[in-house]
Amino acid sequence: MRVFPFAGAMLASDDDMLPESLRGYAPVVRGIARTNAQVIIRQNGYEIYQTYVAPGAFEITDMYPTGGSGDLAVTIKEADGSEQNLIVPYASLPVLQREGRLKYSMTSGVYRAYDNSIDETPLTQATAIYGLPWGLTLYGGGQFSSKYQSVALGMGKNLGELGAVSTDIIQAWSTRQDKDKESGQSVRLRYSKDLPGLGTNVSLAGYRYATSGYWDMQEVLDTYRDDNYTPSIERRRNRGEVTISQSLGEEMGSLSLSYIREDYWNTGRTMESVGVGYNNSWRGISYSMNYSYNRNTTDQNTGKRNDEDHLFALSISVPLGEWLPKPVYANYSLNSSKNGSTSNNLGLSGTLLERNNLSWSVQEGYTSQGRGESGSVNADWRATYAELTGGYSHDKYSHRLNYALRGGALVHENGLTLGQPFGETVALIKAPGAAGVGGE
Predict the structure, then answer these.
(1) What value does the mean pLDDT of the chain take?
(2) What b/e string do you get for 4-38 counting C-beta neighbours within 10 Å, with b at 16 or more?
(3) Is the peptide bond before 208 cis (omega within 30 degrees of 0)?
(4) Is 187 within a domain?
(5) Which of 11, 195, 247, 368 has the fewest CB within 10 Å, making it most exposed?
(6) Tell me, what's the pLDDT at 206?
(7) Is pLDDT at 160 greater than 60 in this prediction?
(8) Which PROSITE patterns match (predicted)?
């Protein structure tokens, strides 16, 4: 379901509250050991997990997600020297969850649009994802307001050597301002497959097909205004996307290719985009190059061209630490558009202080077509009791100063403890006389 701006409250599960070994998707590995045995799990020839188990049935549920596909080869080494060998199918998509894992989100409030003339309609949204056995994941949810209601249901499946696939459908009922009630459906299909022997990943998202009566909630609520303006809303009918990533071998970098095509119900516009990217590193120097071709047509029946553009981007980062006591990088980037401007940016970035807890960057650039010079200076200090961020930037049209103070406060039986922002689970250790001791 599409994310929308709102003012209200949200209650949701948080992966940051879990150990890293339980985040993301990994299949449950089951087996039976005849003796006290060592279990070794390999993927694509690399050992990714090892543990010891007692005689009898066992389950391994705390493997780190591997980020790709390729069946898991499980070896059970028995105490008498014999071995058992098992194969566990594995492939992944972002929607897949571990067996027994429930993720949920509940939101309630009012719609908060970018335009103050749009009504603040009360609304509620709820979503849930649950990991089942057999590599299955079920997910669904709903959005509800007086002007819009929708329900969604989907399923993802780990197909092992065949990859991973998910599909879902949304049924929506909507009433735009001064319009009759409509209903429609949106269907989505996603697929991902790794070819480990070739170093290739293929990701296909047939996202999405929507019927002519389908609207999402934000499109509907944006029509309720206290003025006479009627917004023009483009509604996507089809979207197809293919992305292929290819490793070129050791020290040769990687190549990516992408193709996207969209068309729309009410305007007849068609958008196409083709992208090629390459990135690599050599002796600590990292660099990347990207090219994209974008085309929009005003009418898919006549093929009349509206606009066409070629874009190129280059970035290089060179470490200078060989000559300096602290890590420092020199960075250069180039962005060029056939129909637009060309910008060149050169900068330095690095860290200071004993624990590298002060990061800084300086950048200066120039953009063609009369836009002129631009630059910025930024610093971030992660101190004992807070994090302080500040910066200055300028261009032809303005000068900007920004600053922020962030931190965390932990209330406990002995008082209040201040610290840096709490990104995940936090522990407080009481150690009298040990002030200033760092933790890992």
Answers:
(1) 85
(2) bebeeeeeeeeeeeeeeebebbbbbbebebeeebe
(3) yes
(4) no
(5) 11
(6) 64
(7) yes
(8) FIMBRIAL_USHER
Question: Do 361 and 391 form a contact (C-beta atoms < 8 A)?
Answer: no
Tokens of 59: 């389950």
User: Domain for residue 217, yes or no?
Assistant: no
Phi/psi class of residue 160: alpha, beta or left (left: φ > 0; alpha: ψ in -120 to 50)? left
pLDDT above 80 for 77: yes
Nearest Cα to Cα of residue 350 among 383, 315, 326, 377: 326
The CATH number assigned to the domain holding 38 equals 2.60.40.3110
Give me the number of domains the chain comprises.
2
Which two three-digit tokens encode residue 336?
Answer: 């060029």
Residue 328 has pLDDT above 80, yes or no: yes
In one-letter notation, the amino acid at residue 25 is Y
Q: Please identify, among 37, 59, 88, the residue that sits at the C-terminal boundary of a domain.
A: 88
Whether 131 is covered by a domain: the verdict is no
HEC per residue, the chain: CCCCCEEEEEEECCHHHCCHHHCCCCCCEEEEECCCEEEEEEECCEEEEEEEECCEEEEECCCCCCCCCCCEEEEEECCCCCEEEEEECCCCCCCCCCCCCEEEEEEEEEECCCCCCECCCEEEEEEEEEECCCCEEEEEEEEEECCEEEEEEEEEEECHHHCEEEEEEEEEEEECCCCCEEEEEEEEEEEEEEECCCCEEEEEEEEEEECCCCCCHHHHHCCCECCCCCCCCCCEEEEEEEEEEEECCCCCCEEEEEEEEEEECCCCCEEEEEEEEEEEEECCEEEEEEEEEEEEEEECCCCEEEEEEEEEEEEEEEECCCCCCCCEEEEEEEEEECCCCEEEEEEEEEEECCCCCEEEEEEEEEECCCCEEEEEEEEEEECCCCEEEEEEEECCCCEEEEEEEECEEEEECCEEEEECCCCCCCCCCCCCCCCCCCCC
The answer on pLDDT for 199 being more than 70 is no
More confident residue, 167 or 415: 167
Q: Which residues pair with 166 in a beta bridge?
A: 156, 190
Distance of alpha carbon 235 from alpha carbon 256, whole angstroms: 29
Please determine, for residue 185, whether its predicted confidence score (pLDDT) is greater than 70: yes
β-strand partners of 106 = 11, 126
> pLDDT tens-digit profile of 9-23?
999 988 877 777 777
Cβ-proximal residues to 126 (8 Å cutoff; 6+ apart), any chain: 104, 105, 106, 107, 141, 142
The verdict on residue 73 lying in a domain is yes
